[in-house]
Write a structure and sequence with these properties.
CATH architecture of the largest domain: 3-Layer(aba) Sandwich
Strand content: 5-15%
Largest sheet: 7 strands, mixed
Strand order of the largest sheet: 1-9-8-7-4-2-3
Number of strands: 14
Bound molecules: pyridoxal-5'-phosphate
Shape: globular
Distance between the termini: 72 Å
Oligomer: single chain
CATH topology of the largest domain: Aspartate Aminotransferase, domain 2
Length: 433
C-alpha cells in the first residue's frame, strides 16, 4: 500500500510541527532569540554564503517562524514560504524579487482598501507603478499589460465586496506574457481555495485574519508554488542574473525551484527587515490548528446571515457569493466549493447615516477594523477603512456609502442574527421618528 498524502486537517495540525529536537517539546517552542551560535568559523562562513541552511539572526530566519512558513506552504500546496511582519509587508516582499524602478504591476481594482493605497501611492516611491483594472472582465488584464509589467495581482475572494475572481483565466493571461500571477488568498484561506491548483504562481496572506483566527497577532506570509520559470525571459534579473553581494551567485541557477523563497529571506527580509516576530508565528501556528473547523462554522453562519439579510426590508442588497442569486455564485461554486467565506457586504436603505447608526447599535458584534476573528465584526468601510479612497474607487471596490461589511464569527447563529435584528430595528425606529 502506498503511503497516503496527509489530508488538509492533518497538515493544519502537523505540518512544520515536529517535536522540538533539543527538548522533545510537542508544541512548537517560541524561539525568542535574536541570534544563533555558530558551530565554528567555517560553519558561519557557509551560512553567510548561503551554502548551508541554518539559523543566523532572526531578521532572516527563526525556527518558530520557519515552522509557520512550512505549515502555510503545505496548506497551499506550495514549496516554500516567507513569513513577514504583516500582510502588507508580504505584498512588498512578494514583489521585491520581481521589480526594478520603472516596472509595473497590473492589479484588480477590487482589493482590500489598504492594498489600493499601498500600490497606488507608496509603490511610486520605489519607482514601481500599479494600474488597476476591473477583474470581472479578465481581458482587462491583458489590455493593461505592457513591456514593463512584472506581475498580475488579484484577491481570490475580494475584501470587502464578496467578489470572486476567475483565477484560471487570469493566470493564463499572465503566463501568455511571461509573468507570474500573485493571489492574495486572505479571505478564502487555503481551506476554501488553493490558488496554485488553478494556475497561480505566488500566494500572499494577511495571517492576521483567518489563519491566526483570534485577532491576536499581525502577520503575513508569501508562498511560492515553485512552478514559475524565472529564466524564461529577461524580466526578472534579481533571480536570473548574478547577485553581486553573493559573489555573483545566480539565485535561479543555484537554488532552482526554491530560488524565490530563498531570495525572500536572503535579500528581501535582510534588506527590508519586515520579519515576523516568533511570538506572532507561535500564535498563528496555534490558530491554524483549528482553521478547518473554524472555516466550516464561519461559512455556515455567514450563509445563514446572508439569507436573513436578503429577506430584511431595510436591506437593499447583499453581496455574498454563497447566495444562489449572487452574480459571483457560479465562480464561487468553481473556486470555493466548500463555502464562500465569512465576509459579506450589504446595503442599507437609509444610506450613510443609517450605516453609522447600525454600527453603534450592535452589541454582540464588535465595531472594529479587522476580519477573520472568531468574534463577529462589523464596520462601515466608507467612513473608516476606505476613507482615503475616491468615490470612484469606493464604488469599484464594493465599499459604497451605504455598504456595511460583516465578518461573521463562530458564535451561536441565533445570537448573531438576533443581534443584527435588534440593531436593524433600532435603526428603523430612529429613521421613522
Ligand atoms: C488585512 C488585509 C491585508 C493587509 O494585511 P495586514 O496584516 O493588515 O497588513 C491585505 N489583504 C487583505 C485581503 C486583507 O484583508
Amino acid at each position: 500500500m502506498t503511503k497516503q498524502q496527509p489530508g488538509f486537517e492533518t497538515l493544519a495540525v502537523h505540518a512544520g510541527g515536529t517535536p522540538d529536537q533539543a527538548t522533545g517539546a510537542r508544541q512548537t517552542p517560541i524561539y525568542q532569540t535574536a541570534s544563533f551560535v555558530f558551530d565554528d568559523a567555517e560553519h558561519a562562513a557557509a551560512l553567510f554564503n548561503l551554502q548551508a541552511p541554518g539559523f543566523i539572526y532572526s531578521r532572516l530566519t527563526n525556527p518558530t517562524v520557519a515552522a509557520l512558513e512550512e505549515r502555510c506552504a503545505a496548506l497551499e500546496n506550495g514549496i516554500g514560504g516567507t513569513a513577514t511582519a504583516s500582510g502588507h509587508a508580504a505584498q512588498i516582499l512578494a514583489l521585491f524579487p520581481l521589480m526594478s524602478p520603472g516596472d509595473e504591476i497590473v492589479a484588480a481594482n477590487k482589493l482590500y482598501g489598504g492594498s489600493i493605497n499601498q500600490m497606488g501611492h507608496s509603490y511610486k516611491k520605489f519607482g514601481w507603478n500599479a494600474s488597476f483594472v476591473d477583474p470581472d472582465d479578465h481581458e482587462n488584464f491583458r489590455s493593461a499589460i505592457t513591456a514593463r509589467t512584472r506581475a498580475i495581482f488579484i484577491e481570490s475572494l475580494a475584501n470587502p465586496g464578496g467578489v470572486v475572481t476567475d483565477i484560471r483565466a487570469i493566470a493564463d493571461i499572465a503566463h501568455d506574457s511571461g509573468i507570474p500571477l500573485i493571489v492574495d488568498n486572505t479571505l478564502a484561506t487555503p481551506y476554501l481555495c488553493r490558488p496554485f491548483d488553478h494556475g497561480a504562481d505566488i500566494v500572499v496572506h494577511s495571517t492576521t485574519k483567518f489563519l491566526a483566527g483570534n485577532g491576536t497577532a499581525i502577520g503575513g506570509v508569501v508562498i511560492d508554488s515553485g512552478r514559475f520559470d524565472w529564466l524564461q525571459n529577461d524580466k526578472f534579473p534579481s533571480l536570473s542574473r548574478p547577485a553581486p553581494e553573493y559573489h555573483g551567485l545566480v539565485f535561479a541557477e543555484t537554488f532552482g525551484e526554491l530560488c524565490y523563497t530563498i531570495y525572500g529571506h536572503a535579500v528581501g527580509l535582510r534588506d527590508l527587515g519586515a520579519s515576523q516576530a516568533p511570538m506572532n508565528a507561535f500564535l498563528t501556528l496555534l490558530g491554524i490548528e483549528t482553521l478547518p473547523l473554524r472555516m466550516e462554522r464561519h461559512c455556515a453562519n455567514a450563509l445563514a446571515v446572508a439569507q436573513y439579510l436578503s429577506n430584511h426590508p431595510a436591506v437593499t442588497w447583499v453581496s455574498y457569493a454563497g447566495l444562489a442569486t449572487d452574480r459571483y455564485h457560479a465562480l464561487a461554486q468553481r473556486y470555493l466549493p466548500k463555502g464562500a467565506g465569512a465576509v459579506m457586504t450589504f446595503g442599507l436603505a437609509g444610506g450613510y447615516d443609517a450605516c453609522v447608526r447600525l454600527v453603534e447599535h450592535v452589541e454582540l458584534f464588535s465595531h472594529l477594523a479587522n476580519i477573520g476573528d472568531a468574534r463577529s465584526l462589523i464596520i462601515h468601510p466608507a467612513s473608516t477603512t476606505h476613507r482615503q479612497l475616491t468615490d470612484a474607487q469606493l464604488k469599484a471596490s464594493g465599499a459604497s456609502a451605504d455598504a456595511i461589511r460583516l465578518s461573521i464569527g463562530i458564535e451561536t447563529l441565533d445570537d448573531i442574527i438576533g443581534d443584527l435584528d435588534q440593531a436593524l430595528s433600532r435603526v428603523a425606529a430612529a429613521g421613522s421618528a
